[in-house]
C-alpha cells in the first residue's frame, strides 16, 4: 500500500539506468500571513526560572519564539537555521514519473554558531526546513570543569558516492547508474573520543569536507537517536559477486529522531539526516541527537502565549456533509442525559453535572464504572450531538526536549457511527459494527519554540496517524490549517477523499470518507485549554471529567467479522486469498468494541504521537 508522507507518496523501490532529468528546485514555503507579535513573557523570574546565557552574557527570560534556547545548564546554545542553499538532487525515476530528494546546506547561520549536519527533503513539497545549529554558551558559576561542548570531527568517513557519468570504481561507488546531474559524496563525521556526530554532510567533490564545516557534541549533551521517515531509497546497480547470496545493495536516507520522546522526553531532534548503503542505523555510525539534560523548559510558551498560538494556528475542523453523529461539548453531553453507570448497580445511571464534578477521578480503567446515554429517543438525540456547543479541548505540552510545543486538540463526539466495507467499487454497510457511545479523537499542532512557526500537524486516525509538514497542508483564513473528520468514525485527514483501513491495492477495507461541508468547528475560536502541566500546578483549571479514567461508553459485541468472512469466501479465487490475508489484519473492533477511554488515559497524553 502506498503511504502518504509530508504531502508525498513513497512506494516501492525502483532501479534506474540512465541519466535522470533535473527537477526544478522546490519553491520556498511561506505562510499566507506574517507571524504575529507574540505576547511578552513576563512570568519567568519565579522559582525554577533559568536565564538564557549567550556568549557570557544573560538574555533575560529566554522564552518562547525568541530565536534561542539553551541546554546543559547553558553550556550549549541553540538556534534554528531556516534558509538553505541547494547542494545536489538525487532521483529515483520511473518512466514518466518518479521521486527525488534535494540536499541543502544552511545559509545565514548566526555568527559563532556551528552546523551539526546538512538538511534534505523530498521535492514533492515546498522547501521548509528547520535545522538546529549550536555554539558554546557560558557555564553556570561553580559548575565543575568540562571539555568544551562542541568540537570539530577528527575525520570523515565516506558512506557512498554517486558519479554523474556512471563511471567509478571501488566498494562505495555506484558505477552502473546515474541518479543526478552532478557527483554526490555522502560523509559521516568521525567524532573525537567523548563526542558524538549529529548528522551527515554532502559534497559534490571527492575531497573530504573541511573539519570546521560541522561540529560534534560532547556525549553527555546527547541522547540516543533512531532513523525514521524514508527520505530517499535507491536500488543500486552494482551487483554482489556471483558467489554471494546477498541482494544488490540499496542506498537509503532517513530522518533522525530521538528515541526518548514525549512530554518529559529529553531528546532534541536537530533536523539532520542519516544515510547508509547497508542498512546501518545511525547509532551504529556513532550518531546521536541532542539532549536537554536538565529538561529546561524556559523556551516553552506562557499560558497567554499558548492562547495566542491556538488563536493563530487553530485549524478549521470540517465534518462530512452526510455526517449524522456530530460533535458536542462535554458539558452538553452530560446536561442532556449522559449518566454514570456502576458495575453491580441497579441499572439506573447517576446524573453527571456539566463539569463532571461527581465523576470518580484518578486510578485506572478497572471496569467498575462507565458512561452511557439514556435509552429511547432521548438517547438517540444525544448521540446525534450538537455542533453549536462543540469546542476543542487543548493539551499544551513540551515536545522534542522542550524545543517544540505540541498542542493536542481533542474533539468529543457523543457517538461513533457504523462502519462501511469497501470491496472494489462496492460499499457495504456493516450493520452495527463500529457503533459505540463516546468518541474521543484528536489532532496535534507542533510549533517551534525557537521561531514560533508551525512545523507540522499530526492527524490521528483510529489506532495510528501521521505527521504532515506545514508546507504540505491545506489552509483557510490565514495560517490556520484544515482538518477533515471522516464520516461516522471521525478520524482526521489533511485532505478530502476516501481512505481505506485495509488494503488500498486490493480496494478492500473499512471506508473513511472525508469531505468539506457547512458542518465545521473553528478551533481557533472554540477551544478550551484543559491542561498544561509544564506551567505548574494550578496554572490551568482542569475539569474533573478529564480525571475520569474509565470508559466513556459500554462494551459492544458485534457479529460483523462472520459476515465479512462469508462475503470474502464468495469472492473470485484470484483475489480471495489476498482478501483473507487482509481480513486477518483488520482491527479487532469488527468483533468487539470496548468503550473508549478519555484523553488522559491515552498513551500519547504524556508520550509522543504514534508515527
Automatic annotation (TrEMBL):
Ranges where the record places region Disordered: 587-611
Identification of the protein by name: Vacuolar protein sorting-associated protein 62
Source organism, top-level taxon: Eukaryota
InterPro entries assigned: Vps62 (IPR009291)
Bias-annotated ranges (Basic and acidic residues): 590-611
Amino acid at each position: 500500500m502506498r503511504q502518504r508522507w509530508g504531502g508525498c507518496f513513497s512506494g516501492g523501490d525502483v532501479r534506474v539506468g540512465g541519466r535522470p532529468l533535473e527537477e526544478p528546485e522546490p519553491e520556498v514555503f511561506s505562510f499566507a500571513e506574517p507571524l504575529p507579535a507574540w505576547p511578552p513573557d513576563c512570568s519567568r523570574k519565579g522559582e525554577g526560572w533559568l536565564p538564557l546565557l549567550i556568549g557570557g552574557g544573560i538574555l533575560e527570560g529566554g522564552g518562547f519564539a525568541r530565536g534561542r534556547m539553551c541546554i546543559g545548564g547553558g553550556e550549549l546554545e541553540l538556534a534554528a537555521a531556516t534558509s538553505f542553499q541547494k547542494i545536489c538532487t538525487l532521483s529515483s525515476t520511473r518512466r514518466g514519473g518518479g521521486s527525488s530528494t534535494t540536499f541543502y546546506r544552511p545559509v545565514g547561520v548566526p555568527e559563532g554558531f556551528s552546523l551539526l549536519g546538512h538538511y534534505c527533503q523530498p521535492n514533492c513539497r515546498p522547501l521548509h526546513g528547520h535545522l538546529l545549529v549550536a555554539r558554546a554558551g557560558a557555564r553556570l558559576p561553580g559548575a565543575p570543569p568540562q571539555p568544551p561542548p562542541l568540537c570539530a570531527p577528527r575525520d570523515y568517513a565516506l558512506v557512498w558516492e554517486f558519479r554523474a557519468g556512471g563511471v567509478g570504481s571501488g566498494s562505495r561507488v555506484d558505477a552502473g547508474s546515474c541518479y543526478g546531474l552532478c557527483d554526490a559524496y555522502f560523509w559521516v563525521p568521525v567524532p573525537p573520543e567523548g563526542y558524538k556526530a549529529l548528522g551527515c554532510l554532502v559534497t559534490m567533490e571527492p575531497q573530504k569536507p573541511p573539519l570546521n564545516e560541522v561540529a560534534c557534541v560532547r556525549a553527555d549533551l546527547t541522547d540516543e537517536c533512531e532513523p525514521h521517515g524514508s527520505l530517499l531509497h535507491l536500488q543500486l546497480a552494482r551487483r554482489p559477486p556471483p558467489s554471494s547470496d546477498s541482494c544488490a545493495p540499496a542506498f537509503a536516507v532517513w530522518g533522525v529522531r530521538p528515541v526518548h520522546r514525549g512530554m518529559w522526553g529529553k531528546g532534541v531532534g536537530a533536523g539532520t539526516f542519516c544515510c547508509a548503503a547497508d542498512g546501518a542505523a545511525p547509532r551504529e555510525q556513532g550518531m546521536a541527537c541532542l539532549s536537554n539534560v536538565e529538561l529546561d523548559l524556559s523556551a516553552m510558551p506562557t499560558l497567554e502565549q499558548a492562547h495566542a498560538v491556538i488563536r493563530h494556528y487553530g485549524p478549521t475542523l470540517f465534518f462530512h456533509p452526510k455526517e449524522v453523529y456530530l460533535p458536542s461539548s462535554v458539558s452538553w453531553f452530560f446536561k442532556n442525559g449522559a449518566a454514570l453507570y456502576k458495575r453491580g448497580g441497579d441499572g439506573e445511571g447517576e446524573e453527571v453535572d456539566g463539569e463532571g464534578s461527581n465523576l470518580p477521578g484518578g486510578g485506572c480503567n478497572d471496569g467498575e464504572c462507565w458512561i452511557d446515554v439514556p435509552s429511547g429517543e432521548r438517547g438517540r438525540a444525544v448521540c446525534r450531538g450538537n455542533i453549536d456547543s462543540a469546542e476543542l479541548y487543548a493539551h499544551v505540552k513540551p515536545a522534542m526536549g522542550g524545543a517544540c510545543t505540541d498542542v493536542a486538540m481533542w474533539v468529543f463526539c457523543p457517538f461513533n457511527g457504523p462502519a462501511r466495507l469497501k470491496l472494489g467499487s462496492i460499499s457495504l454497510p456493516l450493520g452495527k459494527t463500529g457503533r459505540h457511545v463516546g468518541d474521543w479523537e484528536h489532532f496535534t499542532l507542533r510549533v517551534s519554540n525557537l521561531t514560533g512557526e508551525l512545523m507540522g500537524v499530526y492527524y490521528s486516525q483510529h489506532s495510528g496517524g501521521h505527521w504532515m509538514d506545514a508546507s504540505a497542508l491545506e489552509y483557510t483564513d490565514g495560517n490556520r490549517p484544515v482538518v477533515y473528520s471522516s464520516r461516522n468514525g471521525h478520524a482526521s485527514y489533511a485532505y478530502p477523499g476516501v481512505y481505506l483501513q485495509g488494503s488500498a491495492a486490493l480496494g478492500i477495507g473499512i471506508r473513511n470518507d472525508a469531505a468539506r461541508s457547512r458542518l465545521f468547528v473553528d478551533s481557533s475560536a472554540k477551544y478550551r485549554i484543559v491542561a498544561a502541566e509544564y506551567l505548574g500546578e494550578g496554572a490551568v483549571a482542569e475539569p474533573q471529567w478529564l480525571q475520569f479514567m474509565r470508559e466513556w461508553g459500554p462494551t459492544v459485541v458485534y457479529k460483523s467479522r462472520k459476515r465479512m468472512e462469508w462475503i470474502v469466501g464468495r469472492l473470485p479465487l484470484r483475489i480471495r486469498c489476498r482478501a483473507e490475508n487482509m481480513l486477518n489484519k483488520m482491527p479487532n473492533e469488527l468483533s468487539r468494541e470496548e468503550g473508549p477511554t478519555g484523553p488522559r488515559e491515552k498513551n500519547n497524553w504524556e508520550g509522543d504521537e504514534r508515527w
